[in-house]
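Can't paste images in this forum, so I'm doing it all in text. The chain is below; anyone willing to post the predicted structure tokens underneath?
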Amino acid sequence: MAEIADSGGGHGKGGKKRAKKQSTRVDMTPMVDLAFLLLTFFVLTSTFSKPKSMELSLPAPPKKDEPQVEVKNGVTFLLTKDDRIFYYAGQFYEPGNAKGMPPTQLIETNYGPEGLHKLLMEQNKWANDEIEKLAAQNKAKTLADTTFKRLAMEATGNTLAITALIKTDDQATYKNAIDVLDELKICNVGKRVLGVDMMGPEYALLLEKTK
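Text version of the structure:
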């Protein structure tokens, strides 16, 4: 509250009456109360940032002599030293396998836009096309946001979408694994498997490539 204090008046020389001097004083107590009320309001109504996480599939430890499970539409990435990354699509076949399939060959790529990103966009083309159609409907307001998110998640989990398996040797870095996970997220690869040990034939083939 503002108050006006009267300092009084008097007579000056020659009998002239002097004007009264007035001073103002502002009481800040109500402002302090208002500041605390506003602070309490914003604290109670604020939304705190939530930690973002990425869903990963961690396989159960394999049983002894358990046959390898075939992964449909799978792409396996082998990470090793010197920021090198190799991959193969589909099932792994050793030379002279019982099914008579040609032996698996490792292909090297890199972490650049013309390497890993381009590869994932091509391999996961079906899911990316589906999500692009859903995004167009969402932008045109014919598809609700919640419905768009649900259908997009279902598309990445469809059997027609790829499954990415990330395997590392003892010389790969955490940064390499994180770079691959980030790229999988960007390219809408919803089925990601991390923590699978390399098979003996895979590791042997990798050693031949990195000699």
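The longest strand covers residues 74-79. The CA atoms of residues 79 and 154 lie 29 Å apart.
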